């Protein structure tokens, strides 16, 4: 793999804009790998935050990080049969480490200073390396200047419980959104950088969008779940962001 060429071809520049972010209290904690994230929260109510957030222009990978990219960067053995599938069973901490290693391999500045205590990992937004998107960035990129819970008909854009045969699917097999981004809704949940609600859930981090195992109602622009940063499961992955295209043009 030519890593630089891969990144050039698969990152898209997202113009700046605004996104309405709503936070909900969700009483379920995702503690066990036996829990499928398709299970919707119960007694969920909108109480935490409703804010119009300004999103600055940034770059985002067109797809979730694939096995091909993850294994190449992390110098792990790769199976050609699964190279175009999203990498799963990766924790939030794994995703942070991946971003730093990828940045280093492309001679970019690392965005994260690691710490054995996850909530003490330091993010430096002035660096030009790779990072996880924020919740607001993820939602803005997913919505892509459309309105409503999804940017198009779910059968056209997403792999979910009713059409995935209960299996992970290759990326780019469904219709992209107006920004040229694939698989934000369905296929795999995606880690974001943000804490879910520090006061109520401590170091729990956010993931977004639904998965191949999710019911239709759980797959949408504003669908959000949470778990502890070391959590791994077979329908949870991530995609990478960057402040701009500096260093990869």
UniProtKB/TrEMBL annotation:
Native organism: Peptostreptococcus canis
Domain of life: Bacteria
Family annotation (Pfam families): FGE-sulfatase
Residue ranges of domain Sulfatase-modifying factor enzyme-like in the record: 43-242
Gene3D superfamilies membership: paralog of FGE (formylglycine-generating enzyme)
Protein's UniProt name: SUMF1/EgtB/PvdO family nonheme iron enzyme
């Amino acid at each position: 793999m030519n890593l630089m060429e891969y990144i050039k071809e698969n990152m898209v520049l997202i113009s700046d804009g605004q996104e309405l972010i709503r936070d909900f209290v969700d009483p379920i904690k995702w503690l066990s790998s036996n829990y499928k994230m398709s299970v919707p929260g119960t007694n969920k109510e909108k109480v935490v935050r409703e804010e119009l957030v300004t999103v600055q222009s940034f770059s985002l990978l067109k797809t979730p990080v694939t096995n091909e990219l993850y294994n190449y960067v992390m110098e792990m053995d790769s199976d050609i049969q699964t190279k175009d599938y999203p990498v799963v069973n990766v924790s939030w901490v794994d995703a942070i480490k991946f971003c730093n290693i990828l940045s280093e391999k492309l001679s970019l500045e690392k965005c994260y200073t690691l710490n054995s205590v996850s909530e003490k990992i330091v993010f430096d937004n002035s660096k030009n390396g790779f990072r996880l998107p924020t919740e607001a960035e993820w939602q803005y990129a997913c919505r892509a200047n459309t309105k409503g819970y999804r940017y198009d008909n779910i059968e056209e854009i997403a792999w979910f419980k009713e059409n995935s045969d209960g299996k992970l699917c290759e990326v780019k097999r469904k219709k992209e959104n107006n920004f040229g981004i694939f698989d934000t809704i369905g296929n795999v949940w995606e880690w974001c950088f943000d804490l879910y609600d520090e006061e109520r859930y401590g170091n729990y981090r956010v993931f977004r969008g639904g998965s191949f195992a999710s019911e239709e109602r759980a797959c949408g622009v504003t669908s959000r779940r949470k778990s502890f940063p070391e959590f791994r499961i077979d329908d949870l992955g991530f995609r990478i962001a960057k402040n701009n295209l500096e260093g990869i043009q």
